[in-house]
Structure formats: structure tokens, C-alpha cells
Amino acid sequence: MSRRQLGKSYLGVLDCDSGSVSLLDIPFSDLSNVVTGNDYFYIEGASGSIPTSIAKVTLDENKTKVISFSIVWSSSPNVMQYRSFFSTPEFIEFPTSSPGQKAYAYFYPPLNPMFEGLPDEKPPLLVKTHGGPTAETRGVLDLSVQYWTSRGWAFLDVNYGGSTGYGREYRERLLKKWGIVDVDDCCSCARFLVENGKVDEQRLCITGRSAGGYTTLASLAFRDTFKAGASLYGIGDITLLRAETHKFESRYMDNLVGSEGAYYERSPINFVNKFTCPVILFQGLDDKVVPPDQARKIYKALKESGLPVALVEYEGEQHGFRKAENIKFTLEQQMVFFARTVGKFEVADDITPIKIENFD
Predict the structure, then answer these.
(1) Which residues form the Peptidase S9 prolyl oligopeptidase catalytic domain (predicted)?
(2) Which structural domain range is residue 220 located in?
């Protein structure tokens, strides 16, 4: 049997007679599937230093201890040679804006064995807001995260209130409060790291995809914590999204937002005058979940307001980018955008930046 508690998966053997559970010692912190056999079984899992893999596990005669654990398939079989570059996530609890309440995140400090930051300089921070919005970030090896940490950035993956994996009460924090709880938790965690001397307060950036893109835009519109943001196929107008998204999710937001008035009050497009920092947007033109008009409307409004803003549109991409060249381009353009507008440093890679309106 497997269970998940406070961001970690546990695997155990249940004794049906006594009801006792013997936890098994395995190197995976996240489990997806378990397939049992006779004297062994297979599991799919990952950890902060092991990519998604399938392992064969053999137990002792009493079926309470692991005597053999071997990976038989890996999604990224060649990455382990670069393990010295991997920043291992630190699971952190932090206080939210509600007294006595805590939320959770994974913090990745910058790491590159070939370079070292200046002793008196704190790193810039990129906060990632996961999608869903009721999904969960799991703290497993993600090379897109390592892209940032190997280049001197600290990276923060937030499981804001409403995320799966921390119990029903935690999951229900987001009911009627999407655009409030998620935003507050992301801002609170960034400030928590600043207060603990981990990151540079003047170089806090935020990014997110889909619902995470909405949290990104809402954080920039309704709070002043971050200095720049990147929205990937994010939502600027939740009223418009309810009308235009595909049928399957058309009523999904009713429990997350609430009244008609809340739809207006929590749509960043209606409060462009509150944005104060640069924004870059990425959008697939074949996206049926978050249609291209979402990115185009917020881009046009921000451009007219005089803020630095850029928009990248991809032909043939839907909700989530699939083409390797577009995934690479998106990462690189976020990096150079933040470096130019907030970081004030030259990127190590040979990247040609796109034009930033009201900046170039």
C-alpha cells in the first residue's frame, strides 16, 4: 500500500490479520504506480535526485524489509552523470497571512560546482505557481528547475493552500478564494525566504502555467511582492474564461471563485492600473482550454499602460507546449527577460532576446 503525507509518498506492507503496516525503505519520495507480483513488485516513482523511473523491489521472507531495489527503466537515463549539478529540494513550512496557519513549498538553492556567488550577494528567486489550481508540486527531479539553479537562481515551488497532498482541510482552503489564498501564500513564502536571508528581496520573480499563470498575474496585479513575472498560457480574465473554455471545465471555477462580483474583482485584466512591473507572456495559438485572447488582452492592456511587456505566440501549440524548440525558447526567454528587467546581469548562454515593448 502507498500513502502520501506532507508532500512525501510512503510505501508499506499491510498485515491483514493484525492491521499493522511495515514501512519500506526506498529511495523514492514520490510514487505513482505499484504493480505486485509473487516475490517482488514494480513501482513507478521519483525523488529530488532520481528522475521518474520504474524499479523492481524484492522483499525478505517476512515481507517487511527491502532486500533488493533496482531501477529497470528511467525517463532520463543519462542525467545521473550530471548529478553534481542537481540542487536538492528542501521541504519547508512557512507561516501564511492567516495567524497560526502554515503552508508548504520546496526550496531549491542555487548550485553549480563550477561557479560560486559573491559572498555578499544573495541570489535572485523565481517562484513557481503550479497549475490545477488544485494540483500539487512533488519535489522530484525536474530539469527545467535545474536550468535555473545551475545558473545562479534560487527556485521556489509552492504548494499553496488548495493543493492536493496535505489533507482535505488544506485542499478546501481555496474554495471561493482562488486568487486570494494562492496569491497570499506565494507572496508569504517569498517574504519568508527574504526574512531568513536566503534570497535577494529586489530580485523576486514569479512564473506559472495555466492556473499558475493566473496566480502569477493576480500576484502582480494585487500585491507588490514581485519585481517581474512570466505567465505561460495563463488567465487574465476569469469571466471570459468561463465563457470560452472547453465544456469539460466550464463550471470548474464556480466553487473556486464564487459570486459574479468575485469574478470581476479577481480578474487581473480589470486592474491593469495596479501592475507595476515587467511581464512576459507565452501562448499556444491552438489552446482550447485557455484561448489566445487571454494573453492578447492582457498584453494589449499592459502595453498601453506603458509597462515593459512581451508576448510570444506559438503556432501549432495547445495547452502546454510540446515541441522541444518551443520549450527551450520559453525557458531561455524567461531567463533573459528577468536578467534584463530585474537581475541586471548578462546571461551565460548565447540567447538573442525578443523585443520588450516599453523597454527596448
Answers:
(1) 143-343
(2) 82-343
